[in-house]
């Protein structure tokens, strides 16, 4: 479970809704406000998160199939 960096408040349960609404075009600051995420450390965790699993899966599949770049 993801938590605020310095306060320790649980924020992992907010990620999916935050990401969905921002992707739909809502301003991130307004989404965070409506989700009740007001502390800077918590806001930072959500704003700076990068979903890299899809990219990692591509690399894994290339490695697995024997295709190498470079």
Structure summarized in a few sentences:
With about 70 residues, the chain is an all-alpha fold. The chain contains four helices and no strands. It starts with 14 loop residues before the first helix and ends in a 5-residue tail after the last helix.
Overview of the molecule:
Helix content is 53%, strand content 0%. The protein is mainly alpha-helical and 70 residues long. The chain has a single domain (12-65), classed as Orthogonal Bundle (Arc Repressor Mutant, subunit A).
What is the N-to-C order of secondary-structure elements (H for helix, E for strand)? HHHH
Determine the mean pLDDT: 86
**Per CATH, which architecture?**
Orthogonal Bundle
Helix tally equals: 4
CATH class annotation: Mainly Alpha
Q: How many domain modules? A: 1
User: Whole-Å distance between the termini?
Assistant: 37 Å
* Helix content, binned percent: 40-55%
The biggest sheet, with number of strands, parallel, antiparallel or mixed sense and barrel status, is: none
Low-pLDDT segments, ≥5 res? none
CATH superfamily: Homeodomain-like
Give the percentage of residues in beta strands. Answer: under 5%
Query: What spatial form do the alpha-carbon principal axes imply?
Result: elongated
What Rg do the Cα atoms give?
A: 16 Å
């Amino acid at each position: 479970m993801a938590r605020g960096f310095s306060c320790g408040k649980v924020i992992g349960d907010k990620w999916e809704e935050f990401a969905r609404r921002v992707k739909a075009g809502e301003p991130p600051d307004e989404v965070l406000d409506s989700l009740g995420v007001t502390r800077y450390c918590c806001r930072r965790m959500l704003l700076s998160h990068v979903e890299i699993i899809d990219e990692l899966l591509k690399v894994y599949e290339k490695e697995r199939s024997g295709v190498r770049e470079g």
